[in-house]
Amino acid sequence: MISFLGVNIIMMNTFAFAIRCSGPFAAYGLGLVMPNATKNAGRISIITGTVGVIFWQILSGGDFYLGILPVVFGCAVGTITFLAVNAVEYKMGKEAAPSAYIPLEE
Fold this sequence. Notes:
Elements: H1 2-5, H2 9-33, H3 39-60, H4 70-91
């Protein structure tokens, strides 16, 4: 069906990678290294990173817009959201997510 519609397969492939990469980037990366990361910071950053890459893909047509690729824009949005939500929840006294490095039995 893709070939009948004349859709550029390379653009679709990079768009799929951008969606898969940009949403969870901050949640996975920062969630592992920040000691007080909250669950909501990860969840919200996944959503905003994905929405950011879709927005930038539509705005740029899959190309560089203002010198920024959609995947880079989505990763930046997700990272900023993660840090902002985590800071707000930390100030509110929200409990941190369990560490991936400490067994639950301890």
